[in-house]
Design goal:
380 residues, alpha/beta, seven-stranded mixed β-sheet, six-stranded parallel β-sheet, 13 helices, 45% helix, globular
Amino acid sequence: MECNVLKIGVVGCGKIADAHAAQIQRIEGCRIVGVCDQEPLMARQLCERFPVDRWFESLPELLNEARPDVIHITTPPSSHLDMARLCLKAGCHVYVEKPFTLFEGDARSLIALAEEKGLKITAGHDDQFSHVARRMRKVIGDGFLGGDPVHMESYYCYALERSAYSGALLGDKNHWVRLLPGRLLHNIISHGIARIAEFIEGESPRVLAYGFISPLLKSMGETDIIDELRVIISDEHRTTAYFTFSSQMRPSVHQFRVFGPKNGLLLDQDQETLIKLRGKRYTSYLETFVPPVLFARQYSQNVTGNVRKFLTRDFHMKSGMKYLTESFYRSILEGTPVPIPYREIILTAKIMDSIFAQLDQNSSQFEMRCQIPLQVAQTK
């Protein structure tokens, strides 16, 4: 580390790498010393569009020649484990884009290696650090819920028709997303699951998952990609949660609701609003008149706060990524705790493992049920 300037490297120069580079350049005291991609043209174009010292064709070349202090891994998830392991062994701190790894065991092994090497590692759960998410965390920390969460509801929708790679995904049977254990879900749902993992106290939550292919995708001839998911989660302390992923429900929302023994909260990621839900009811007809007025006041306050942040140039779409990245760098320089506790990273991976295992089992059972009538018919 030269003169307290963190040297940063980025491996993988696709779309999400642009967001990382843009946020890194907003942070004082760091410099992108190199980027790399197995497709040299991708590395070169990123280097030319952002203030990057050099571009490389391989990760070992980047590690050996640029000698970064921190590596951001923004490659497809199947490569995260090997690349992160290589970076840690080279003495680099590591920021891994979501999903952190493909399996819980891999997450545990990377975290153990980081601790063994005296290094730090984090996951790209940047939605957890948006302005509204940080406000929610403070309100909960101040005791607004009246105790530990009793129940949570996390909604994470994905409009396939609006996505940049949906056409390529649906048209290419060998697309890298299709090769993930959870396919489309594996590349997306960690944001919504991480919200729940933050407030689950138990270490071994029970998970019940149900997924299916939407009628829309079926009409397009799709038989592999599950785009509708419903999950029930409960821990040893009887804290419960629902998780919903949908490509079809409208409005397409990204919301989190948390209910305590006294009050509740509603976070809307898209609208950057946080609404306090009063637990105590008003008497008689006041319950129909007062709450709408109070909700209107809260929404007005949210708008005022958002406008204020916009005018001070602190209201960009990836503000959560900047805050997470900056906090991670600070933990390296000052020896403070990492922004995402390792327990939450592991718990998110554990819940996802359970979801995908159940979806695979349900799919196998469905195939067996479909085959039985045919077998019976053949024996007659």
